[in-house]
Amino acid sequence: MWNEMKAGGKDQRKAKGAMGEEVAALFLENVGYRIIERNWRCRSGEIDLIAKQEHTLVFIEVRSRSSSKYGTPAESVTARKIAQVRQTAAVYLHMNGIGDAPIRFDMISVQLTDEKAVVTDHLIGAF
Q: Can you tell me which family this protein belongs to (predicted)?
């Protein structure tokens, strides 16, 4: 029973995360970004969204919350997570032969309710 509850909770968390990423991608497209990758993975980690804004390559961490019980989405981005995203971005740049393009790291907060998901904050150059 415990494993079933645990698995169900994990699946629900994944579904909420996917919903948050979808809303974030739509938000970014509506303000002129072009999404190039979603959930790009390598051994060092995963980047939720990779986009282009004019000539800048933007690595975006999406944080979704359905409650403020455990703090804001921005508060959930730890120094360890920042290091992981930066390392994963370095792998992406290397694997794609991108050496001199301007890059940036953004964070998007998404508030989830039973009815909808809404972007509540877009921190440009968050880390």
A: Belongs to the UPF0102 family.
